[in-house]
Recover the amino acids of this structure.
């Protein structure tokens, strides 16, 4: 146990404690760093910028995650069905975007979204009217959701697919002898089998959604006015710390969001495991 | 089974929390004050230190830096200068701020944009160069650049370059659209209409909302929206100059007369080369950028004075930077020697000017060689005559905010929205003002806005 505890203390406990320590101070250009008690927490709970960002990632989680996991599930079932020709090809092809570095993926999509030079422009020229315009206030969040889905469908598919692989072949044989068709097998055998894996994938996706940073932060370089400095809580914390000279408040924002995320993940886990019984 | 697992998780969580709070109690006080009196030195002592030698680190994004450092090391073979390319002003600020906060790996000499000097000076992070006798160098530099490095009773750097604004235009694109060079802003807006009408894919200028450009334009219009005196800051982004600029500029946004490419992107450079963007109003360092980044534009570009509001020549600075010595540098004496050589010796300034640098030193700005230089890129035009004349028209009294780089970072959230929604620039400026007032107050300033 000791080696584990040492590593745990060093890499998990220390950064957390240090952030909590930082969050009790106030950084000022005039006046330097002074002790502020829980003032930062009081500010954070009524900070409209923080809750604007939190609301956005919450919405993102509610819409993007079900779509992404739904697609992953369909893909996993299709590959597992044994009726798909070239299933290893599809498995690798779907997983490939996950292997593309996040920054590269966003730059690539960022270019395709451009309505002058990118794919979007060509598409709009083809139909003759602006069919899609990702770089607008209405569509930018959807555009980010599309990138994230593209990146992570394959990864989640793999989690679900490995869960399906653990089902013994005899069960399927028994089901067919009992006269179950494919849909029946999916509903009564496969879906219950992936429930645990689906819960894990959901929890990963909660963390991913609430920590959304890379995609909007890179698109911000291309479209600075569309993505604000507090677009997501992580972007907000980053800007507070690195351009705003407010390391302590940034730490507070990070801790508050960490707590919010932990609570949501915990609730989802409770619900998920209860059904499991 | 499930219940046991959950309980174990809960126990673990409580243990972690306990560990967290226990360690939190033992976290000692942290003293983050900057400053501390540095011992000064005379010119002789600095020279002696240079002869004796040692090693220093220099952070810069100046393209000519390597040439300058090589020449310096040749003149002072005992000094070893480690050059670190910080690629650009934005990244450099962040990097410097982090290093200063960490307290290790602090450079000995660092390039800082004029507008960011107060941000590092106020918390006591820059060395006062008065102690090294640098106040005697004042007469070497233009008043506006010297003003940018000397404030709050000290000297915080030596000016490297200056950026009086000028109007750079693509003659070929102007001819194609049948447009004359605008001398007033009214003519400018008309020219923008004509060019757009002639070819909707082209435009007179590109601007998707740039804080450096906006502040310079307000400056050129005679505005002084930011005034700082110690910890007292006044912000008025609806003053006469700001309003004048916003009202002139609004039609360009409303009628979609501007291109909105991200500045400094590959697309932007390309558009400057192929005539899509017919002009830019930027600092006098722009010829170097054009020659370097827009080879296709060779022979097509020309320069003219900035358009005016009522015919009276008036100008502003755009960009420009200084080299400074952080208070936390471990070798300030040697750093002072290098800095003095870098920004006041003929040899170094010549190396800087040879490849398009626009100096801050009066002597060089007035030299016949400099003024008579015929730029091949600009079709043989004597560009420095125009640029240097622009330097003498710069409006006095301009100040940046003590937190200008932060202010610039939230510009897109506020003024940038006007560009995006075709809404009122004045409203955008008002929103920018509000954000800055609350930030300044949080940062311990006495803000009046």
């Amino acid at each position: 146990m000791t080696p584990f505890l040492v590593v745990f203390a060093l890499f998990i406990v220390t950064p957390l404690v240090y952030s909590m320590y930082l969050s009790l101070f106030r950084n000022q250009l005039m006046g330097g760093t002074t002790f502020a008690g829980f003032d930062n927490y009081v500010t954070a709970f009524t900070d409209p910028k923080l809750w604007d960002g939190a609301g956005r990632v919450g919405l993102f989680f509610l819409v993007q995650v079900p779509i992404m996991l739904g697609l992953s599930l369909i893909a996993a079932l299709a590959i597992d069905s044994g009726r798909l020709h070239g299933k290893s090809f599809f498995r690798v092809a779907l997983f490939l975007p996950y292997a593309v570095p996040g920054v590269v993926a966003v730059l690539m999509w960022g270019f395709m979204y451009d309505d002058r030079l990118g794919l979007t422009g060509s598409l709009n020229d083809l139909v003759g009217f602006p069919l899609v315009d990702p770089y607008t206030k209405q569509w930018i969040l959807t555009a980010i959701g599309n990138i994230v889905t593209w990146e992570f469908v394959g990864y989640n598919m793999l989690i679900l697919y490995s869960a399906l692989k653990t089902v013994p072949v005899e069960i399927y044989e028994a089901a067919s002898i009992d006269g179950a068709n494919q849909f029946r097998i999916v509903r009564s055998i496969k879906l219950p089998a992936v429930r645990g894996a689906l819960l894990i994938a959901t929890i990963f996706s909660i963390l991913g959604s609430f920590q959304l940073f890379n995609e909007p932060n890179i698109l911000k370089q291309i479209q600075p006015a569309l993505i604000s400095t507090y677009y997501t809580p992580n972007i907000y914390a980053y800007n507070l710390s690195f351009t705003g000279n407010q390391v302590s408040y940034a730490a507070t924002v990070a801790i508050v969001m960490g707590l919010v995320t932990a609570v949501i993940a915990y609730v989802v886990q409770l619900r998920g495991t209860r059904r499991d019984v | 089974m499930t219940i046991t697992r959950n309980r174990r998780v809960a126990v673990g969580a409580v243990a972690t929390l306990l560990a967290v709070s226990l360690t939190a109690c033992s976290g000692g006080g942290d003293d983050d004050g900057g400053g501390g009196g540095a011992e000064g030195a005379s010119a002789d002592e600095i020279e002696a230190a240079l002869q004796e030698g040692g090693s220093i680190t220099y952070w810069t994004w100046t393209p000519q830096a390597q040439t300058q450092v090589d020449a310096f090391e040749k003149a002072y073979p005992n000094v070893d200068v480690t050059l670190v390319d910080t690629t650009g002003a934005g990244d450099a600020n962040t990097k410097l701020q982090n290093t200063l906060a960490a307290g290790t790996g602090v450079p000995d000499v660092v390039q800082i944009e004029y507008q960011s000097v107060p941000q590092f000076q106020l918390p006591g992070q820059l060395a006062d160069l008065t102690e090294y006798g640098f106040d005697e160098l004042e007469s070497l530099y233009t008043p506006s650049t010297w003003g940018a490095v000397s404030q709050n009773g000290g000297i915080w750097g030596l000016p490297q370059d200056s950026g009086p604004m000028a109007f750079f235009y693509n003659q070929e694109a102007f001819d194609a659209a049948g447009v004359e060079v605008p001398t007033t802003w009214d003519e400018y807006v008309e020219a923008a209409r004509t060019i757009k009408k002639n070819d909707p894919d082209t435009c007179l200028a590109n601007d998707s909302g740039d804080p450096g450009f906006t502040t310079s334009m307000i400056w050129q219009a005679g505005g002084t929206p930011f005034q700082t005196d110690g910890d007292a800051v006044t912000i008025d982004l609806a003053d006469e100059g700001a309003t004048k600029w916003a009202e002139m500029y609004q039609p360009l946004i409303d009628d979609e007369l501007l291109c909105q490419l991200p500045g400094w992107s590959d697309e932007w450079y390309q558009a400057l080369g192929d005539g899509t963007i017919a002009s830019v109003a930027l600092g006098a360092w722009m010829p170097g950028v054009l020659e370097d980044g827009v080879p296709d534009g060779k022979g097509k570009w020309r320069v003219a004075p900035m358009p005016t509001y009522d015919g009276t020549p008036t100008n502003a600075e755009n960009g420009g930077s200084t080299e400074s010595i952080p208070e936390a540098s471990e070798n300030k004496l040697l750093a002072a020697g290098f800095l003095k050589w870098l920004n006041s010796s003929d040899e170094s300034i010549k190396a800087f000017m040879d490849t398009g640098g626009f100096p801050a030193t009066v002597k060089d700005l007035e030299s016949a060689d400099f003024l008579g230089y015929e730029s091949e890129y600009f079709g043989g035009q004597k560009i420095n005559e125009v640029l240097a004349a622009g330097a003498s028209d710069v409006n006095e009294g301009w100040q940046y905010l003590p937190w200008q780089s932060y202010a610039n970072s939230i510009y897109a959230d506020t003024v940038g929205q006007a560009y995006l929604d075709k809404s009122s620039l004045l409203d955008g400026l008002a929103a920018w003002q509000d954000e800055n007032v609350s930030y300044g107050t949080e940062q311990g300033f006495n803000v009046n806005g």
About this structure: The first helix of chain A runs from residue 2 to 22. The longest strand of chain A covers residues 25-28.
